[in-house]
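Reopening this one. Same input as before:
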Amino acid sequence: MLDLQVIRKDFPILDQQINGQPLVYLDNAASSQKPIQVIDAVANYYKQDNANVHRGVHRLSQRATDAYEGARDKVRGFVNAKSDNEIIFVRGATEAINLVAQSFVRPQLQAGDEILISHLEHHANIVPWQILCEQTGASLKVIPMTERGELDLSAFDQLLTTRTKILAVGHVSNALGTINPIKDMIIKAHAKNIPVLIDGAQAVPHMVVDVQDLDCDFYVFSGHKMFAPTGIGALYGKQELLEEMPPWQGGGDMILSVSFAHTQYNELPYKFEAGTPNIAGTIGLGAAIDYMQNLGIENLAQHEHDLLVAATAKLSAMDGVRIIGTAEHKASVLSFMIEGVHPHDVGTIFDQQGVAIRTGHHCAQPVMQFFGIPATARASFAFYNTIEEVDSLVLGIKKVQELFA
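Same output, byte for byte:
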């Protein structure tokens, strides 16, 4: 059991009022709040250790480097990678997907080849592959979804062919909360020698992720959705693949030697980390991992599941409310429509009550198009949310219905 009174004190932003009402923050799928332990870790770096990494013999640089590389080892343990060399720091999941697209996939593609994604994807796992197809003449194929918001796995089996050069699929849908059966999908792809990238941005804050158990070739995620700062994330890649890939960006720190005639690139993981990195953000990411692991990720996942079950039951019992996405296996996300009310109006009225939810297409416009709707209202939970805040969600819906009656 989590002591929510103690936990919520770690998140100073939650202790405020919006429009005269206590803040109820239910927009965690967009970006999560940060505990004071993460905020202090970032502040302490700037106050005590601010220096560039890997390049200085002075004490500040050494301390900064130790903290930076210490965070890499925390990420390795967090996803159970074999080696620190398999962890590349990036700005977030978006940059990681683009890196894999351009450095790993593009050199292998030619006209007639195929890239396979799903209908559930965030735009960050659609647009980079569209760009790649435009560059190479390859084709983008899409695994269809069902009315429940689950992938059509029989269609998936048919779409995996010798022309498929990579499968790129989200672990958890940001728009619907659907947990995809990625382990089975990876097994099927590997049976045909197809590499797999998993977008784990919505998964790592809410469940244990073991990349060795999954046997995925690449796994990407962002820090800001898992209680860490913005502008930092990680790419996991199997070492043998990363070693074969050319650098995506050039600059300082990704080199061993440079002349006008030739440049010798650095070893892993630095080959893919050109320029001065987000040192403070990386240290904050490490602190966020420490925080989550101290509480127990299984404990966090169970509490969030309980909130989702309770909220789903309450909204399902309300007249005029339609839940969008009813997959059997879901995580932390509840998208809904209120009859006769545009989601943007819903969000505005919720804000007047101090309740922060997300409204719009959630960077998943193909999902909205599938359901024939412009947008949804989305409540998304984190471990610091309470059952009383679920009740605030219900009261917010009733207020909307009163105003639009």
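So the earlier flakiness isn't reproducible anymore. For the record, Residues 53 and 235 are 20 Å apart (CA to CA).
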